[in-house]
């Protein structure tokens, strides 16, 4: 009898020592299958350390989204009255109850988390695989991407305590897989292997006729009527995102300006910000195609606008999505973030959990409400998404499917036609945005039954706009060459918005901020409609470009004077 009593007491003590045994776990996220291209390699080593993040429930995200639309819609009485840092944080700061409950759970398991966002809605901590499996009732496994050989540790499902499901949006990295193709610059050279630069014979005194085969800053200015007069407002900053150790080289920029913008001082430079251990070494061999392209076609088009290159390091588990989040939180922590942010990276939406996509999209809503225009290249795989062709249904890209940013597609040639690589389509995560309902319904009516069953007819449609993205000349490691991709188009369109913002700020007005409600309403008639071409993929011809908005080139390409007039300057 004494022995039995001792056994029961021991079990009770063991239960007290294992907090997980006292909590009922509930499945929080799962995916039905391993993403195409990945294969399981076996259980992850138990002692491998995982850099984990938890997104806490934000207190009023619906209120933030409503406020964003109010300050971004030209017909609204609040148009242009962007929110302050404190006003945005008031919408997203988790409740005290949420913070206390989640931290108590972590503390029970001897985990001390660090807050990694200005509003306190993201926590971070490191634990070994063995503890992650126990904490989340998960099965962390090594997955290898067969084409690249890249390995990642992920789980196909995880759980959280049932009493915390209303406090936790997601835990990462869990069911979101990295996109190996996002680890390459979204630059597709028309001739040599991907990422290479095609030699160019263009000289600095090229005449506009050469624009049919080679795009330079002069060509872009001629195509869209962009002025060469210097911007005047130092507060009107243009941010360029840098990821995956793509470094922007100042000497390459100097040579680019000397050859192709001789009217600008060749000493014109961009400034640098870093986070997550980011850097920007200036050794010639470390220059990156993507970073050079993005800085050259912002400095080189947005004449006189202060350009900042924001280099994001890789102090996270793996994949670019943590960097996507960190750069937004970094800028949200600033009192005066850039008025425009352009990013030339992305990945297929189907590799991401819906919860993480929502959180990133809401982060864009926060920065948009502050008055920043967020632009992303739409991708370079046509309807196959982000540089892949193995698909039976169309693949949308992220974050282009997010309704709170502006997606930029690509054109080619003079006169312009759709670039066949220009990704576009319809999100499977986000519904058609209110600002684009009319434009999209018109396109779907014209499309009829073409591609029926291959895409989500009720999804957020992208891209929103387009710009030239083929045969674009850059200087890379002191050699001139041509590149192509929507990653050319995004910095070009961002530069146009920055120049319009300069005029607005000079006139004492607010910058444009989140663009889409303006683009699809007041500004819709200012675009040059692209009605030829398509974006093939998934063994189809993809979507056709037609009159009006289409999922290849969006509303079309910009006319600077008309767009500025629509903005009121």
UniProtKB/TrEMBL annotation:
Keywords: Calcium, Glycoprotein, Hydrolase, Metal-binding, Protease, Secreted, Serine protease, Signal, Virulence, Zymogen. It is found in: Secreted, Extracellular space. GO terms for molecular function: metal ion binding; serine-type endopeptidase activity; tripeptidyl-peptidase activity. It is an enzyme of class 3 (hydrolase). Its cofactor is Ca(2+). Binds 1 Ca(2+) ion per subunit. GO terms for cellular component: extracellular region. The active site is at 290 (charge relay system), 294 (charge relay system), 487 (charge relay system). Ca(2+) binds at residues 529-530, 548, 550. Secreted tripeptidyl-peptidase which degrades proteins at acidic pHs and is involved in virulence. This is tripeptidyl-peptidase II.
